[in-house]
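Final report, closing paragraph on structural work. Over the funding period we assembled a curated collection of sequence-structure pairs, and we close with a single example.
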Amino acid sequence: MRAPAAPGGRGHSMAKTRYASLEQETRYRELPAAALRAVLREGYSLKDLRADAMAGVIVGVVALPLAMALAIAVGVPPQFGLYTAIVAGALVAALGGSRVQVSGPTAAFVAILAPITAKFGMSGLLVAGVLAGVMLVAMGLFRMGKLIEFIPHPVTTGFTAGIATVIAGLQLKDFFGLRPTRSPDHFFERLSAMWEARATASGWEFLVGAFTLALLVLLPRLVRRVPAPLLALPAAALLVAVLSAAVPGFEVATIASRFHAEVGGRIVRGIPPLPPLPMWPWSAGGVFAGGIDLKVVHALLPSAFAIAMLGAIESLLSAVVADGMARTRHDPDAELLALGVGNVVAPFFGGIPATGAIARTATNIRSGGRSPVAALVHAATVLAAVLVLAPLLGYLPMAALAALLLLVAWNMSEVKHFAHTLRVAPRSDMAVLLTCYGLTVAFDMVIGVTIGMMLAVVLFMRRMAEVTNARFVETHPSLPGPVPPGVVVYDISGPLFFGAAQKAMGALGHIADRARVVLLRMEGVQAMDATGLVALESALDRLKGQRVTALLSGVQPQPLELLERAGVPARPGVAVTKDIRDALAQAEALARSAPAGTPGRGTPRPTANPTSSRP
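Its predicted structure, as stored:
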């Protein structure tokens, strides 16, 4: 019979590895449908179902015009926005980690997706969505949901306001009825093309758009229980119908006049009354007309990464807002995994990229939604509308949808909050915010966020250098007594990170003529990185060369672990002590035992390290 493995032996190590593997597998199994399973465990009653059903219907009605308007803004027919709300909305709700979040096409994506559609066509957009979904699945499996907390607020505020500006600018074309002769990728070039086409502006289109926008702004003040788009858009369609019958030559663009689809060999104007049907994303026309092209897939990767990053940020921010409103807690990793699955599957049914929608989520909560069932009902409501109301949806004016997106962009920009941040924030945060905003508008979100994060990191380094302090002290309230002759106490406080470490260690280079022993007080150093370790090691090497003993007192757990891995406590002329009292006692003994003469010469090696006892 084989003897049992000794603790810490190979058998123990293998058992530990199997346990870790089993634990990781269990964690992965907990991810899918985390919110739905939690709701069912707690008990789901008929009363809850009624509340969710009512909220889901309301959110579905609100999502109808938004999904169509956002698809049109991206550059694809409106039904593909509806398919996104149906497929991705249902999958993310069923598999996600938020109880009340509603997912679908959002305004934040317009600034990223419109250039992809213009350059790669519909098939390129769908394939980019699949690639982004794969990235999001990986982010969820690798538990990256918490990383959203490390994105500085000025970065999110800046790129969100920048995206809102781009969305608003893109709506001017339909709001004024412009007919530009070109459609460039970049924002300012598009504005230039619209300005060149200013002579084609239609007063009727502007009238319909202004009428809709006025209703969208005024109705919430008069009617609180009914969402404003549910009243304003039908009113705009009715206005168009009345003017068409009463005014000769009246004509404005509608969904039915702008879009058409082939169904069963015949042309259907507007939205086809069909559910989302399976399709190959690369067969939708555009760059993949001849089949999958790996070169094009490679060219789509940066766009897919931008979709994945924005989708993750937008969805997790929306989930945080939802938690605050509904007093719930979401699982960010489960939400990312579900969002990835939704974005992988939706393009195979014609769906464009989706993420958590803050406005629809807030509507869901205010309408009484309590669980993911509400978002599932929302998807079913949109599906029912496509099957039953498709001919009526074709009467919606394009100018009215543009007005709806103008209001969405205004709300998204949070102008008051943007201005308030500029007034009260430190100059460094103002620089980050304006940089993110300007680059997002001028180029795209990826460049804006990347440069903004880099600038924020550099400014963080400077702040850490300002926070970290190091100084020689003769007396201090925490010292048990006066500093013995031949001993110097060097007090370090603050993190020893890059940018701050060299400043903290710089003064230790020239003290050989002042002391035989240097006592480094590190109680205030809670964290240290590799740069701080290198700076500390360099200072210790200089002290060793000058025959000065270094005692490190009160080292905190994280820096101590790093020092032990680097072998610092075992170096000649270095000791790590438990606290300042032990350090002063050992320093006094070392100073007395040093030979007479130059203070820094002949310092003996310190006594054995009581070292590795952690404070």
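Residues 432 and 455 are 6 Å apart (CA to CA). The mean pLDDT is 85. We thank the funder for supporting this effort.
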